């Protein structure tokens, strides 16, 4: 396949996937091809998959079917974590032409150029992820007012419920100097906010001379970027020194952390093979709030892990009720091939998993509302996004409160100083412009 092609992309899963899809798209544009929307009858479809998403195979099949309905002659390429874990299964999906594993996805153009015509049989290229040592930098650009900057890839932790090490390999990263250069590229654009992303970003440096604390201190010096936001970081890797710098001394890092907990039971945490106990988690939250009471803290929780008893779930509920956190991301445990979790305890019935999930979602709503109520009457800086809904525009404060304001196209991708006034019925904060405050 040579010559000018129209290429459409679809991304499933995490911020890391979005950063990589955006980078692959730029490679196509640099090679003279055009990035188009999914519905614009492209010549090539590229679907970047996720292994964490439930029913990954079902979603993949649905997207392939949808793509070929738009253009039956299009080449369909599947990349990403699910492609690394289940390449042969994906190759059997009707209409798929190319499946690339983790090592090969950034050489997508080279692989596509070798294809001649649709043969009805997918070509598969993947290698043992354990051999992957190369780190490919990536960042998203062009679709949002913010950019996701990939600073790390892979994971050495092997939690018993997780397939990510099997899909992405060992923990690795570029040097601090190289990562800063990528950030400077973003700083030369109109993007105002950068979200640091990876699989296990706190493991940056893997115990070597460079580490995550050193990285954030250097990123804080990068001109052209108003805000840095940390996407998710393990509590055992979020040191007090990192906390003190990012929300106590930094010029650009915002008061917002997302810290996975997974369970409020130490026995369950140990069975999950997590690297901490709940007491450490509580210490991290307490220290953050001692420095910045207005800091937003998000929490990941898994319900229905094998062997989780009613008492252990209640332990999680009670622990979270006492924690001064702002919202929960609740995940219902689902069985994954090639993980050891299924062997570690009796399966929790699906109806029980759903009921526990419902209870935690209710708790999350209460936590979020309480946090929002604590912010009413405060003056904040909001980065206005491009979305419009019923004459309103939206944005986020530095401490991650979602705000709505009357739509004004001239304000998109600008910072506005506002006073937070009340919580709307949809859970979004209303605000008024504070013209007297300095931005």
Written account of the structure:
- By secondary structure, this protein is an alpha/beta fold.
- It has three domains: 6-127, Response regulator (Rossmann fold, 3-Layer(aba) Sandwich); 138-375, tm_1862 like domain (pyruvate-formate lyase- activating enzyme, Alpha-Beta Horseshoe); 379-433, OB fold (Dihydrolipoamide Acetyltransferase, E2P) (Beta Barrel), CATH 2.40.50.
- The chain has 13 helices and 18 strands.
- The protein has helices spanning 15-30, 56-70, 81-85, 87-91, 108-113, 164-168, 176-187, 212-219, 240-249, 266-272, 278-291, 310-322, 350-375; strands spanning 6-11, 34-35, 44-49, 75-80, 98-100, 123-125, 138-139, 146-150, 193-197, 227-230, 256-262, 296-303, 327-332, 379-389, 392-397, 402-406, 415-423, 429-433.
- A six-stranded parallel sheet has the order 2-1-3-4-5-6, with helices on both faces. Strands 14-15-16-18-17 form a five-stranded mixed barrel.
- The longest helix is centred in the C-terminal third of the chain and has 26 residues, at 350-375.
């Amino acid at each position: 396949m040579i010559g000018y092609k129209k290429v459409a992309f679809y991304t499933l899963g995490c911020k890391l996937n979005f950063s990589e899809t955006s980078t692959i798209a730029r490679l196509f544009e640099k090679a003279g091809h055009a990035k188009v929307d999914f519905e614009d009858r492209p010549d090539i479809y590229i679907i970047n998959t996720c292994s964490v998403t439930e029913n990954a195979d079902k979603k993949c099949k649905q997207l392939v079917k949808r793509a070929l309905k738009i253009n039956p002659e299009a080449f369909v390429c599947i990349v990403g974590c699910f492609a690394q874990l289940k390449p042969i299964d994906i190759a059997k999906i009707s209409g798929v032409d190319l499946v690339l594993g983790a090592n090969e996805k950034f050489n997508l153009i080279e692989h596509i150029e070798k294809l001649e015509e649709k043969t009805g049989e997918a070509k598969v290229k993947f290698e043992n992820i354990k051999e992957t040592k190369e780190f490919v930098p990536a960042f998203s650009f062009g679709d949002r007012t913010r950019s996701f900057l990939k600073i790390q890839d892979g994971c050495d932790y092997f939690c018993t419920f997780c397939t990510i090490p099997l899909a992405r390999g060992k923990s690795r990263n570029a040097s601090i100097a190289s990562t800063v250069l990528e950030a400077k590229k973003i700083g030369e654009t109109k993007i105002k906010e950068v979200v640091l992303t990876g699989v296990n970003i706190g493991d940056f440096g893997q115990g070597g001379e460079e580490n995550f604390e050193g990285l954030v201190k250097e990123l804080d010096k990068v001109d052209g970027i108003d805000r840095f936001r940390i996407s998710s970081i393990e509590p055992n890797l979020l040191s007090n020194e990192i906390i003190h710098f990012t929300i106590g001394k930094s010029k650009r890092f915002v008061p917002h952390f997302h810290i996975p907990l997974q369970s409020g039971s130490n026995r369950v945490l140990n069975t999950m093979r997590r690297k901490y106990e709940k007491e450490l988690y509580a210490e991290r939250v307490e220290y953050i709030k001692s420095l910045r009471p207005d800091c937003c803290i998000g929490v990941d929780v898994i319900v229905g892990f094998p062997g989780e008893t009613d008492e252990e779930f209640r332990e999680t509920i009670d622990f979270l009720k006492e924690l001064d956190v702002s919202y929960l991301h609740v995940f219902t445990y689902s069985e994954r091939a090639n993980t050891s979790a299924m062997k570690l305890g009796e399966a929790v019935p699906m109806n029980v998993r759903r009921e526990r999930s419902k209870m935690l979602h209710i708790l999350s709503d209460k936590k979020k509302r309480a946090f929002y109520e604590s912010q009413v009457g405060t003056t904040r800086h909001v980065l206005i996004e491009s979305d419009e809904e019923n004459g309103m525009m939206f944005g986020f404060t530095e401490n991650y409160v979602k705000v709505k304001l009357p739509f004004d196209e001239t304000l998109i991708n600008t910072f506005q100083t506002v006073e937070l006034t009340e919580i709307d019925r949809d859970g979004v904060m209303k605000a008024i412009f504070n013209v007297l405050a300095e931005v």
